[in-house]
Amino acid sequence: MTPLKSAWHHIRRSPFQSLIAVTVMTISFFSLSFFVIISHGMSSVLNFFETKPEVTIFLKDGLDRSTVEGLQKELSNYPKIREIKFISKDKALEIYKEQNKNNPLLTEMVTASILPASFEVSVSDPKILEQIAQNFSIKTSQVDEIIYQKDIINSLLIWTDFIRKTGIIIVSVTTAITILIITVIIGMKITNRKEEISISRLLGASNYYVKRPFLIEGIIYGLTGSFVGLLITFILSAFFAGRINLFFSPVVFISSDYRFYAILLLSSLSLGSLIGFTASWIGVKRNIKF
Question: Which of 51, 113, 216, 287 has the greatest number of CB atoms lying within 10 Å of its CB?
């Protein structure tokens, strides 16, 4: 009997134990893949705000043209400026009406006179945002309010870091439990086959020949559990992708890039095989001693 057939024979002879091993492996890799996709989505959101840093400077009413041009020239002197866009009162009204076109009640009483003119400044380095905000915040006679992305980016960094740390903790705990359970299951199976192992040794079987089926059995648990766990994650991601991506629009929170999922699949299968092999090797080492 080949080692693979022997391992499959072991699995079929104790299906309940094998099911437990696959189930805990599935839970472990479902947790892993879930947090990888969530972390990837949060990174996409963070990248969107970091690559499109913008500060909006709302101007006081009544500024003459030369004052506005002077402010624009001062902004252009900052390094790493990508674009300076002046939004007049009339343009601000157009934007406001477009944003609220489905709610006429919000547009009926709004006129250009009550909306402030503003500068929208895009930069290639988020650090410049704070410099601009600090310097222009003191121009109280010309600047009414300043809004920039710092708070959003800081909040996203905090949440992304929290999700990653939480994911690492949960995945580490589930992986440790998985290894422990598979080690115990393999140990139980070895104990139930002590007589068979002794007979094989008497017939001249090597240590490697005796241990190999149990190691392959662990790899099968790892491959099966990692694949099923990832498959569940893929199905849930595909089902909820439309609604989640719509919520985070224009950011694609749940990626549609097949390369990302191919890499995740290959990585999970490799890691699953390694975990299954490691757990089986520990079980074999503890229970088969010649």
Answer: 216
Residue 71: DSSP 8-state: H
Per-residue pLDDT band at 110 (split at 50, 70, 90) = confident
Residue recorded with tokens 């650090």? 127
Short-list 49, 30, 39, 50, CA closest to 260: 39
Q: Sketch the domain layout of the chain as residue ranges.
A: 3-49+154-287, 54-148
SS3 14: coil
Alpha carbon distance 92, 247 (integer Å): 25
3-state SS assignment for residue 1: coil
Task: Please write the tens of the pLDDT for every residue from 55-78.
Answer: 888 998 888 889 988 999 999 998
**CATH class of segment(s) 54-148:** alpha beta
For residues 206 and 200, what is the distance between their CA atoms, to the nearest angstrom? 8
CA angle 258, 261, 262 (to 5 degrees): 80
Rounded CA separation 147/145 (Å): 7
Q: Is the link from the previous residue into 104 a cis peptide, with omega within 30 of 0? A: no
